[in-house]
Amino acid sequence: MATASAADLDALTAALLNTSGNVPLHNRFRALFTLKALKNDDAVRIISEGFKDESALLKHELAYCLGQIGLSSALPVLQSVLEDKQEDPMVRHEAAEAMGAISSAGSLPVLREHLNDPERSVRETCEIAIAKIEWDNSEEGRNHRASKPEDVEPVVYTSVDPAPATSGLLKGKPQPTDASPESISTLRANLLDTQLPLFERYRAMFALRNIGTPAAVDALADGFVDDSALFKHEIAFVFGQMLSPHSVPSLLRVLEDGSESDMVRHEAAEALGGIGTPEVLPHLKAWMARPDAPRVVRESCQVAIDMWEYENSDQFQYADGLGSAPTPSAVAS
Ligand SMILES: [Fe+2]
Ligand SMILES: [Fe+2]
């Protein structure tokens, strides 16, 4: 865990909240990811102040980071974001997901209240977050927590996921699913089965992420025809964690599709920035400058270009989903 001096915290606050008025968005993101790495109440307090901002992109990332930090001190602000019907649905969705990540049974009533929310992505997120909190308290969830992390999940993925990967069982203990064609085809079938609860489909999604082969990428990409924007944005997010060049063609199709929802295109842009292969840069530059593109798509391309440049520099590379956005060295870890 990183530590920070009072002066570091002041500098991070000024950068995140853009107190000077001229901090570029990608530098605000860098400050945010440094705060996320602190994982303490100071970070929660500073990040919580950012919800007054105008940028939905920034605010949804604040909520995401509060969930990943995992402290219950973030629950009041997350609940107020979820309950604020004037707030952008992408931000409200991320607040609900963060409540699922923190996994307090005390969040269940407010999440249940929003199962009838007018915004589909908020309703669906609440459904998944409730299932996650209930699963965390189930026998399988308890067994999972009692296992060594490397026994159930590849160590490369340090994120708290909205649903645990589908796991096999060996002598009652959770095991990663294997990468055989049969296993991938079963997971693909579950991923695409719209009759299954979203939580189960997400479990298959994260199992395919953990398998990580080109065949698993293909199975995930098949999910981009779904009619749930939430579901599709999570596939793009997972591609941003996997960093497989094999996913680039499907992500570019999503980014370039003007009829696709902003939330999905945003996540595709950031995944492309993280993957950082040469052919994606002109697309990111083009969409950042397109006056007809939604703000969240333009801003995502701006952040993605910063990620692309970072991945293509000789600095240390991070691999943690959008957590892969670069972190400044202002704070010692
Ligand atoms: Fe999200
Ligand atoms: Fe996002």
UniProtKB/TrEMBL annotation:
PROSITE patterns: HEAT_REPEAT. Pathway: Protein modification; eIF5A hypusination. InterPro entries: ARM-like, ARM-type_fold, Deoxyhypusine_hydroxylase, HEAT_type_2, PBS_lyase_HEAT. SMART domains: EZ_HEAT (SM00567). Fe cation 1 binds at H60, E61, H93, E94. Its main location: cytoplasm. HEAT repeats lie at residues 74-114. The keyword DNA-binding does not apply. Its EC number is 1.14.99.29. Signal peptide: none annotated. Belongs to the deoxyhypusine hydroxylase family. Catalyzes the hydroxylation of the N(6)-(4-aminobutyl)-L-lysine intermediate to form hypusine, an essential post-translational modification only found in mature eIF-5A factor. Catalyzes the hydroxylation of the N(6)-(4-aminobutyl)-L-lysine intermediate produced by deoxyhypusine synthase/DHPS on a critical lysine of the eukaryotic translation initiation factor 5A/eIF-5A. This is the second step of the post-translational modification of that lysine into an unusual amino acid residue named hypusine. Hypusination is unique to mature eIF-5A factor and is essential for its function. This is Deoxyhypusine hydroxylase. The gene is LIA1.
